Amino acid sequence: MIEGLAAIYIFMLAGFTGYEIISKVPVILHTPLMSGSNFVHGIVLVGAMVALGIAETTAQQAIGFIAVLLGAGNAVGGYVVTERMLEMFRPSDKKEKGEDS
Amino acid sequence: MEILIQAAYLIAAALFILGLKQMSSPVTARRGILWAGAGMVLATLATFMSPQILDSDQVSINIMLIIIAIALGGGYAWYSGKKVAMTDMPQMIAMYNGMGGGAAAAIAAVELIKASNEAAHDVTGSSTVADMLGADVAILGILGAIIGTISFSGSIIAWAKLDGRLNRSKLLPMQHVINALLAIVTLGFGVAIYFTNSIDTIIIFYLLALVLGVFITVPVGGADMPVIISLFNALTGLAVGFEGYVLGNAAMIIAGIVVGSAGSLLTQLMAKAMNRSVANVFFAGVGTDAAAVSGDGSEGVMKEIQAQDAGILMSFASQVVIIPGYGMAVAQAQHKIWELTQILTEKGVNVKFAIHPVAGRMPGHMNVLLAEAGVPYDMIYDMEDINADFKNTTVALVIGANDVVNPSAKTDSSSPLFGMPILDAIDADNVIVIKRGRGTGFSGVENPLFFADNTKMLFGDGQKAASELIQAVKEL
User: Fold this and answer.
1) Does B318 touch chain A (CB under 8 A)?
2) In chain B, which residues have their Cβ closer than 8 Å to the Cβ of A83?
C-alpha cells in the first residue's frame, strides 16, 4: 500500500520534520530529547510483533521472539528513563514549596 | 478492520511528532513524553488486531509468544529503567537503543529467511531473495539489517565502555583499515543475499555486521561516547524506517525517519559542541595517542586551600559561579552543592551554575543531574551566556570538572583539546577546584588552570568537600 513515489514523499517529509523539531532545542534538553527519540523508534515493537505473527518455522519464531523482546525493551525502557528525566524539570518558583528530595 | 488499524498508526505517528515537539521546551516536555507514550500504546494494541497476524497458520501460538516476549522484554526494561541512577542514564539509553537496532535487524532476518526459503522452494529453483521481495523491499530490508545490527552490537559496546566494563580502546593494529575492509566484505554479503537464496549467506552477513559494530565502537574514546550513542540512535531510527517500508507499516516509516534525521542533527550539534567532526570521532581517539600524555607537563605547583578558607571566600563573594562536572555526579555531591547554593543565596551571594555543552556524559546530562537535586533550571546558564560574566565573578567553584575549563584548549595548539570551546573560569577573581586527586581528566590532558595564580585546589571527595564547605559557610 505504500509504494514507490508515495514512500519517497513520506521519507522526505519525515526527514524534514525530524530536522525541524531538533533545530530549535535548547542544550539543556538534548539528553532528554535523545532519550525521547530513542523511545519513539521503539515503534519497532509493532514491526517485531508482525514479524513474529507471520513466522512459520521454529527458526523464524525464535528470531521473531527475540525481535519482540528487544523491541519491547526499547519502547518500555526508553519511556521509563525519558519520563524520569523530564519529571525533574521544574522552574524555580516551586522550590519554595519544600520539594527537597 | 484494516482501516481502523491504519488510522491508529496514523494517530500514533502524529502523537510521536507532537510529543517530540513538546519535548523541545522545558515547560511542555513532560507532557510530550506522555503523548508519545499514548501513541505507542495505541499502535501496539492496534497491531494485535492486524490481519497479517490473525491470518497466520499459527495464530494462537504466535500471539502467545508475542505476549510473553513483551512481558519479558518490557518487564526487564521497566525494572532496569526505574532502578538506574541518573548518572548512569547515558549507558541505559545506549542499551535501549541497541535493543531497538537489534529488533529492526531481527525483523529483517525473519523477512530475508522467509524470502530465501520461498525462493529455494520455488518451481524454477533459481529464484532469488530479490525475486520474492521485489528490488525495493529487498534493498531497504538488507540495508536496514546491516544498519540495525551495527547499531545493536555498537550500542552494547558503548554501554559496556560507559559502564566501566570495557576499557580497551584498541583491538587490532591498523584498526581503521580492517574496519573499512570488513565493511566492504559485509556489504558484499549483503549484495550476495540479494542475488541468491542461501541461508548461510544471511547468517555470515549478520555475523560480519555484528563484528563490524564492535570494531567501529571499540576504538572510540570515552569522551566521544555521547556522539556515538547519538549516532547509533539516529541509525536505529533509520533501520526502523527501512524495515517499516519492508512491512508496509507507515507508523514505523514516519517515526523511524523522524528519529533518523533528528538524531543525525543532534549528533552534529554534539560533535560541534566538542569541536570535533563526526568523522574525527571515529578515526581518532583523544587520549589514546602518545601526544596526549606528553604535553609540556604544565610547570608550577598547585596551591591547596582548606574548606574553612574557601567557605569564607565564598560567603563574602558578590557572585559565585559553580561549574559542575561528571565527577560531582559520581561523588553524588549535587544535593550538597544545592544545599550550599541555598545557604549562599540567603547570605546575599549571587549564585549561578555554568554548564558546558558536554558536561556530564552527554549534552544536557548535567542539567538533568542538577534538576534531580532540585536546582531550578533558571539558575543554570549555558556556556555562551555565562562566559562574559566570569570577569564579574568573585569565585568560580569547579567541582568534578576538568577538560571543560582547560585553558590550553584556547592557548596551546599542540593540545588535543585545542579549539574546544571552554568555560572561562580562569577569568574569575578566584578559582576553587574541588578535586579528588592530582590526576588528569577524562581526556588525559594536563590542565594549566590548576597551576594558575588565582586557582586554589581543595582536594577531597566531592561529597565530603561540599559538606565541609557547607559547614564552613554556616559557621560564619
Assistant:
1) no
2) 30, 33-34, 37
Distance of CA B60 to the CA centre of its chain: 39
**Distances in whole angstroms, Cα of residue B118 to Cα of each of B113, B121, B231, B313, B316:** 9, 5, 36, 78, 80
A-chain residue closest to B231, CA distance: A34
| Mutation site, A12, A23, A31, A83, interface B, largest B CB count within 10 A | A31
Task: Identify whether A52 is part of a domain.
Answer: yes
Q: Which domain holds residue A86?
A: 26-90
> Does the structure show a pLDDT above 70 at B323?
yes
CA distance B69 to B119: 29
Whether A100 maps to a domain, the answer reads no
Cα–Cα dist A43/A35, whole Å: 14
Provide the grid cell at B381. 546558564
User: Does the ipTM surpass 0.90?
Assistant: no
Does A1 reside within a domain? no
pTM, entire model? 0.79
Q: Are B153 and B213 in contact (CB under 8 A)?
A: yes
CA dist B119 to B189, B199, B359, Å?
Answer: 18, 11, 53
Give the bridge partners for B310, in sequence order. none
Nearest to residue B79, comparing CAs of A41, A85, A80? A80
Comparison of pLDDT for A43 and B388, the residue scoring more: A43
Where are the strands (E) in B189-324, listed by range? 319-324
Amino acid letter, B158: A
d(CA A21, CA B461): 40
Asked whether residue A40 is domain-assigned, the answer is: yes
Tell me the C-alpha distance between B286 and B214, whole Å: 19
Q: What is the DSSP letter of B303?
A: P
Question: Which chain A residues in 25-64 lie under 8 Å from chain B, judged by CB atoms?
Answer: 25-57, 59-61, 63-64
User: Highest mean pLDDT range out of B9-18, B192-201, B274-283, B398-407?
Assistant: B9-18
The residue among B332, B324, B420, B402 whose CA lies nearest residue B366 is B324
Is A50 in Cβ contact with B52 (below 8 Å)? yes
Question: CA B53 to CA B66: how far, in whole Å?
Answer: 10
Could you say which of A31, A48, A99 has the minimum Cβ distance to residue B106? A48
* Contact by Cβ (8 Å): B240, B100: yes
Residues of A with Cβ-Cβ distance to B151 under 8 angstroms: none
B24 and chain A: CB distance < 8 Å anywhere? yes
Q: Residue A88's closest CA among A6, A3, A29?
A: A29
Q: How far is B81 from chain A (nearest CA, A)?
A: 5
Q: Residue A74: closest CA among chain B residues belongs to which residue?
A: B96
Q: Which residues contact B265 (CB under 8 A, 6 or more apart)?
A: A18, A19, A22, A23
The total number of structural domains that make up chain A: 1
